[in-house]
Amino acid sequence: MPKSKHRLKKILKFGPIYALTLLSLTGYTAADTFLVSHSIATVKASKTTSSTAATVATNATSTSTSYKDDNISITIKTETVNNTKVYVADIVVSDSSYLKSALAQSTYGTNITETTSDQAEDVDAIFAINGDYYGYRNDGYVIRNGTLYRSTAGDEDVLGIDSNGNMASYDPSEYTAQELIDKGIVQAYSFGPTLVENGKVVVSDSDEVGQSMSSNPRTAIGQVGENHYIAVVSDGRTSESEGLSLSELAQVMVDNGATYAYNLDGGGSSTMVLNGKVINNPVGGGAGNSTGSERAVSDILYIGYKEQGS
């Protein structure tokens, strides 16, 4: 899409509702319940697209459940686990620069949200999942694509992804956000908990996120090996799909080869997108919403084209 048309589309899409959104008090507790938001300064994030500063893929082929080019391979399979539909994306890239983060409307701040699919479209993502919805709380490190946006520590371990694409958990009581930057961390997510370490499940049957229900739609990201990742999204809260506990989610990760895995925002936020299409059946704002209704969230983690010169 030409830049002028894309810009007009964004203005028409968000202009009327953006001001109303800034005036409204929204919130969010744990994995799914809203708190009153607090106004914070916004920071515009840089954005590149495949039509401007990214290398166009060569020899690309895709289906409704796969994508492959010379540097990226993504295959999604669907499993049924404990009466729950689970979508498992196996992702292999030639180097870590293809694994990226994006912020809603390319801006950091509270009350700035877009659906996962809209954010994926904004950055020309091949594949995307929702992130940690940093905007629903005032703490938890936020590092995106090497930029530090928030340095206030939260309670949960932090997922850190370094410049080589390797994932690990960090205790925020032991590392400041700047120390993580100094260690080469380019992405930091603060939701949790950690699900898998050294190929072993590290959550128990009783572990849960805040006030969340024990069976939920879930989103998680994990690593199998060098530049080899697993992303899992499960449906839930419907008659067709019950939802997973954290320990069940962790076991799905281990069963699919993850040596490390971390829980991201779940509930109505859980969304997986491939080739511009939503793969799962999100429940939007809560259990009473019909499936297929995406929730607007603060951020995504995605696979995208490589920027020129990188």
List keywords for this structure.
globular; about 35% strand; 5-stranded antiparallel β-sheet; about 300 residues; 9-stranded antiparallel β-sheet; about 15% helix; 25 strands; disordered N terminus; alpha+beta
Structure, explained:
With 310 residues, the chain is of the alpha+beta class. It is 14% helix and 33% strand. The protein has helices at 3-23, 116-122, 177-182, 246-255, and strands at residues 28-29, 33-34, 43-44, 61-63, 66-68, 72-80, 85-93, 99-103, 107-108, 114-115, 127-130, 142-144, 147-150, 158-162, 167-170, 185-189, 194-197, 200-201, 218-225, 228-234, 260-263, 272-274, 277-278, 296-297, 299-303. A hairpin with a 4-residue loop joins β14 (158-162) and β15. It is globular and about 45 Å long. The two termini are 24 Å apart.
